[in-house]
Amino acid sequence: MNKKILISTLAAVGALTFSSAAFASPVCTAKPQSQWLTPVQMKAKIAKMGFKKIKVFQVSGSCYEIYAINKDGRRAEVYFNPTNGKVVQNNVD
After folding, report:
1. Cβ-proximal residues to 67 (8 Å cutoff; 6+ apart), any chain
2. Where are the domains of the chain?
3. pLDDT tens-place string over residues 16-68
4. Which residue has the higher pLDDT, 9 or 43?
5. 46 burial level (CB within 10 Å; 0-12, 13-18, 19+)
6. What is the third-level CATH fold of 26-92?
7. What is the spatial distance between Cα 75 and Cα 68, in angstroms, rounded to a whole number?
8. What pTM was computed for the model?
9. Which residues in 1-93 belong to E strands, given as ranges?
10. How many angstroms separate the CA atoms of 18 and 75, rounded?
11. What distance in Å separates the CA atoms of residue 72 and residue 37, rounded to the nearest whole number?
């Protein structure tokens, strides 16, 4: 294989690997899941914050993650600390 092609291929793979890591979920807690709020407790906290029409509620890494409509009527992807319910990252469209 040509060295230039090999180097280009390795550079492209490295760039893709780095860019996919940038989109990983944030670190929300280091505590074990046994110390997390239950999904029912977390959903109640989320509702009190004004989020509606929750389409996705899932565990993502060390976070609870939702896709919902926020209190301003905008779509949001939100990561919560599962031990206290605080917002760690809020991505709004």
Report:
1. 54, 55, 56, 75, 76, 77
2. 26-92
3. 444 334 467 799 999 999 999 999 999 999 999 999 999 999 999 999 999 99
4. 43
5. buried
6. Nuclear Transport Factor 2; Chain: A, (3.10.450)
7. 6
8. 0.74
9. 52-60, 63-69, 75-80, 87-92
10. 27
11. 26
